[in-house]
Amino acid sequence: MTLLLALLIAQAAQHPCMEDAKRLCPGVQPGQGRIAACLKEHKAEMSAACKARIAEFREGAQACEADAEKLCPGTKPGRERSACMREHKEQVSHECREFFAKAMDANADMRAAMRACRADAQKLCKDVKPGEGRVLECLQQHKGELSGDCAARVP
Description:
Structural class: mainly alpha
Radius of gyration: 18 Å
Largest sheet: none
Distance between the termini: 20 Å
Oligomer: single chain
Strand content: under 5%
Low-confidence stretches: 1-13
Helix content: 55-70%
Number of strands: 0
Shape: globular
Order of helices and strands: HHHHHHHH
Number of domains: 1
């Protein structure tokens, strides 16, 4: 089991769109925006909580998009644009800085959850095929056996 996958599963379980993704996009392989594309196709069927989270994300992303166009014209999304934005971090708008701070906090939480649950997942869920929330479900089934730090992070 990859550590990144376990982290993403733990983070996704707390996201309001996770249940929508399970319900509306069963069998869709995560990665390369496939789940997001599926949810977009089922926009009318999404929960209010998921729609609200997506709207919140878009608002923050739009602030950064405007900064990227101004400070890093012609850069490709991804590493190239991120590097450029870091070079210009003093010129980035307050709204974009707040958006990135939230994203960094979420990433730190995910890394902490991965560290906390790595040994438990390897011990209790070693035969579980990663993907579609299976590792998280396994950890939830073994909640009474989890280390204290992992148990505190598993919903």
